[in-house]
């Protein structure tokens, strides 16, 4: 009795833990839980299953879509995602996958049984002694792998024929179906190739995969400059300083020498007027456009272009006023320094004279005390 009660309690605890774990797993969204291979299997299963396909009433709007104007397959799938009845949890999807796999196995077993019956009827009694274990060794035996490859080939041919038949009646909505079928055919081809590789590995004849030779970068030849020296980088920096000399009086209107800038702007203006007089408005317009493009490019590079004559005149006047102010301040400062210097010198002279007089007075007083008669005192 004790052992049976313990077993019942253990089962209850295990069932409670199992339900709790399932509930926790169901909180995870399926697109985060499953890997890419499982997602492909689920996608194939969803395409084959009738109950998971979008229903006619899901997401339909009678006012917007009439019977003549039907929704595309992509739009149906998109709207079916928002239907709460179509949403499945992780455990439900796992159960459906297990059921789908079991149904596929049963279908394959039935096909093998039918094929086996045909071979027994046509061949001799020796074929009747074939072991039944070949029906269940889909993933382990050689015969099952060969049969599965044949089944995949048959399915692939059927899908290709169906795709070719549907290509004749193409419309805007059937393009989605065409893409879906093409994707499915490519997946089936991939499965077929993997199955054949597994079969060859079991037989001991693995398909030799072509080894990718590493792309050897071509060895760069040594580059020599004009002087015959090897250049180790892509750019020859030896000719930067001595090659092109800077143009004197370049057209770049930058800096704080407003007088020269104003002269350049006035010269440019005179040049435009001369071109307008000689070549007409067209040549002057092209030259003006060229100048405008130069200024735009310089501004794009971050250069502060000063080409406004009025602003230049204002800044020049301001600079001259500042210069006059600074000169006046400097003059006042020098005068003030000179005055203070003179005052200090005069004070020093007075102090020296005062000290001399005090010394003379001391000597006279001493001599008077001693009884010496000093003339003039």
Please state the average pLDDT score. 72
Record field, number of beta strands: 2
The number of helical segments is 10
Low-confidence stretches: 57-69, 126-142, 238-249
Largest sheet geometry: 2 strands, antiparallel
Gyration radius, to the nearest Å? 52 Å
Output the helix-strand order: HHHHHHHEEHHH
Number of domains: 3
The share of residues in helices is 55-70%
Distance between the termini: 151 Å
- Widest sheet, order of strands: 1-2
Strand content: under 5%
- In terms of quaternary structure, what is this? single chain
Describe, in short, the structure shown.
The chain is mainly α. The protein contains 10 helices and 2 strands, in the order H-H-H-H-H-H-H-E-E-H-H-H. It folds into 3 domains: about 15-55 and about 75-115 and about 140-205, no CATH class; about 250-305, no CATH class; about 315-375.
């Amino acid at each position: 009795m004790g052992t049976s009660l313990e077993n019942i309690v253990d089962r209850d605890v295990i069932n409670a833990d199992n339900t709790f774990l399932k509930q926790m797993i169901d909180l995870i969204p399926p697109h985060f839980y499953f890997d890419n291979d499982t997602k492909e299997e689920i996608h194939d299963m969803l395409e084959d299953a009738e109950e998971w396909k979008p229903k006619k009433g899901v997401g339909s709007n009678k006012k917007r879509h009439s019977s003549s104007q039907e929704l595309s397959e992509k739009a149906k799938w998109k709207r079916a995602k928002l239907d709460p009845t179509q949403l499945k949890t992780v455990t439900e999807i796992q159960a459906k996958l297990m059921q789908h796999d079991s149904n596929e196995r049963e279908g394959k077993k039935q096909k093998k049984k039918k094929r086996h019956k045909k071979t027994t009827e046509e061949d001799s009694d020796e074929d009747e002694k074939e072991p039944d274990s070949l029906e269940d060794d889909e993933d382990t035996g050689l015969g099952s792998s060969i049969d599965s490859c044949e089944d995949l080939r048959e399915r692939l041919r059927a899908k290709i024929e169906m795709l070719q038949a549907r290509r004749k009646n193409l419309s805007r909505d059937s393009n989605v179906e065409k893409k879906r079928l093409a994707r499915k055919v490519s997946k089936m081809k991939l499965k077929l190739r993997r199955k054949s590789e597994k079969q060859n590995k079991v037989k001991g004849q693995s398909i030799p995969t072509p080894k990718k030779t590493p792309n050897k970068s071509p060895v760069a030849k040594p580059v020599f400059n004009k002087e015959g020296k090897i250049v180790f980088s892509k750019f020859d920096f030896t000719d930067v300083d001595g090659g092109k000399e800077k143009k004197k009086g370049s057209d770049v209107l930058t800096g704080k020498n407003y007088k020269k800038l104003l002269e350049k702007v006035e010269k440019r203006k005179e040049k435009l007027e001369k071109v307008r007089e000689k070549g007409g408005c067209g040549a002057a317009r092209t030259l003006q456009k060229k100048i405008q493009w130069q200024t735009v490019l310089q501004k794009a590079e971050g250069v502060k272009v000063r080409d406004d004559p009025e602003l230049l005149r204002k800044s020049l006047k301001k600079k001259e006023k500042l210069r006059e102010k600074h000169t006046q301040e400097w003059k006042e400062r020098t005068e003030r320094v000179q005055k203070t210097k003179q005052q200090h010198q005069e004070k020093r002279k007075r102090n020296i004279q005062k000290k001399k007089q005090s010394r003379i007075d001391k000597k006279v007083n001493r001599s008077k005390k001693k009884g010496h008669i000093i003339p003039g005192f």
